[in-house]
Amino acid sequence: MEKISIEVLLTGGTIGSAVKGGMISPAGSPAEKLKASYKNAGGKAEFEFVSPYTILSENLNADNINALVSSALGAYKSGYDKIIICHGTDTLQYSAAAVLYALAGAHCSCVFVSAAKPLDAEGTNGFDNFCAAAAFLENTDMPGVYAAYKNGGENAKILPAARLALHAEGGESLNCVNGEYAAEFINGKIIPNPQFVFAESKNIGFPVHFKNFSGVEIITAAPGQEYAPCKSGTRAAILKPYHSGTLNTASADFRKFCQNAKERNIPLFAVDIKPGAQYESSFEFEKLGIIPIEGAAFAATYIKLWLAGGKKGKELEQFIKTSFAGEL
To answer: Which end of the chain has a smaller Cβ tally under 10 Å, C or N?
Structure first.
């Protein structure tokens, strides 16, 4: 059997940190610990470790994302079609979406790995996550970008990056919208999910590069909110509805906000919209110029809007409504 070579990009985060003086901070490279854990589990793959930068992922910015995209593309162009990216949990969904669009159309498999606790802490899932990612890459040939993560009381799962949901309030579990997953890591083996529908990907048509600021406003539904007009320089806004996909469309203030956006050619996108029957308030979306993105994950939509910095209005709307890597 041909030996699989995997490039591992280390970016810091909890999986690359240690607890000292009651504080979690980036520590030395976790490369040897991670490699040893997979070898001890019977894995045969070889690893090449590279570190484009080291941060706690809450400090992620455009420069970091651009460096990560460049490193992933560089690894692929130098012959690595199997890549692991070790990353912090706080912003993993955003970085995974960025790499997803950068590698769209390429025959490359990339898996993000993180940890809820540092590798030296009792109960860490970092080793399970890394072993699941490496086993997936060693034993399958499914292109695309994924995350390997073991939630409490479960086996580690391989989750498609296009569908990664934000963490639930107060929780540390990582899941996809609608509970999707590509495979499960059970007793050291990768078991594909027979119900997973693989999505072909295609190149987005321009280089993936992020400006310092996204130009995207985020408005989360909550009672008693004022809806000020979008700031100068805003290209688009994402509306995060209540869990049932609803917004306060009865509010005169909200309706005025929508009208202002329409007059200024600023598209309003509503995410987390489920298929099926909708509440009566949702039937006001079309009148108000709100564009529902059915079934789309927030992070993948936000990153898609950010990277499309040269597009506005209808051109931007058409780009967002086109699926490039299974995000819709």
So the answer is: N
